[in-house]
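Hi there, hope your week has been kind to you so far. Please have a think about how the structure follows from the sequence. I've dropped the whole record in just underneath, so have a look:

_____
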Amino acid sequence: MKNIIWFSVILILSLFVIPAFQSVSALSVVATIPVITDSKNMAYDSGKGELFVVSAYSGTVSVISDATNTVVATIPVGSGPTGVAYDSGKGELFVVNSASNTVSVISDATNTVVATIGAEGIVPDSVAYDSGKGELFVGYYSSGTVSVISDATNTVVATIPVGKITVGIAYDSGKGELFVVNGHSSTVSVISDATNTVVATIPVATPYPDNMAYDSGKGELFVVNSALSGGTNGTIVSAISDATNTVVATIPVSEIAASVAYDSGKGELFVIGEYSAVVISDATNTVVATIPVGTIGNVAYDSGKGELFVVNSGGTVSVISDATSAVPEFPFTVPILLVSFVSVIVFYRIRKSTIL
């Protein structure tokens, strides 16, 4: 009898208590940093653990330390800065200035502009750094072209025609390719960094694709598509495989998305909308969480601390932790407890009848 009781206790504990604590996402805003009111785009500097936040109206870049979550420097650049990208090869930041048609090169050692490059298209808007060749790709909103800039000479070495209204660029380190979002063509141009030519053109889900992020874990690109023209108050996210250059999944998101970033620490995608950050798992291509933040802004992932930085249009930056913690989930274990209890009773009665 004593053995039966002990068996029952152990069985119940193993089936009830252990599953009751599971590692689940504990996504939360851990800090709020004041910045210049109209700040929007940004890039994370992994070399110094700093974030560079661009302010188009003031023509400046705010530098935020991820150690203290405070602004440590403000750098004047050109007129109407928009896109920004980090050059890990030289420890430099490239800032695209739309109004002055230039690119400012900032040293992360001194937080000063060390060079200014004349752009060769009309209204430079987006930018991405190609670590494979040490080159920068700058997209132009109005001319439908992409300039290739060498980080060795800070000069334009090639100009590539793409689709209409270039609004986003991302570098695919897995294949050495660049993906360029063409807003009014509803396409994504794939550029080889070996030849600086378009090697594929991919149609996406809905009109007016806007932004994107590269998922190095799965070799996929996530493109945000505005669904407003289709009568839907929300967004469609297209997942593109870099193996086949085709859309392999479409994910509906309730928010009207403003930006997107890939979280390599957890294999998740963050889509920033009007009032919240939507989290998509790259394992299932489904929405797994929604986090309240400020109004429309942009986002960057800090791989050093496992944090997301979200720029809010009200003049703040929200810092979101992607950490996980053990939390109780008792509702899922109650049925298991009942089954376990019944099983113990049945086992005891069978045992007793066998002894008799």
Notes: The first strand starts at residue 21 and ends at 25. Residues 145 and 162 are 5 Å apart (CA to CA). Helices lie at 2-16, 334-355.
